[in-house]
Amino acid sequence: MAGGSSNDDDGLIAGINVTPLVDVTLVLLIIFMVTARIIVSQGMPMDLPKASTGEALQQVFSVELSIDGKTRVDSENLPNDEAITPLAKAAKAKTPGLRAVIRADRKVEHGRVIHVLDLLKRAGVAKIAFAVSPSDTKGSLPVETQPAK
Question: Whole-model pTM?
């Protein structure tokens, strides 16, 4: 007889098929992973209660550069890129270990991003990161930069 389960003479199957249970579990795991990613990436302003035993959160100085030339620092619109310097100096004075994150649209000119990077360094912010979004395909080049065949 083929198969690993034992069959009685009554025709009852003694083995349990766990494949549907594993399928449902994996689908739920994927749903939770995607939902957690969406929840973490979205933030809303909150007035959190204060506690004497709480740890201080690390401050992040967020700079956003859009393709239409707009500049935002910590969700506040600025008239130009040069206005970043006084805000960065003030934030650096409040928080010595300040970290800056530059979020630039992919079509923003490289020179503008480097200029903002230079402004942050002149303001004394040494820890700077660039925000990116994960790509859908691993190891492939964007369509406009793939070599011609």
Answer: 0.52
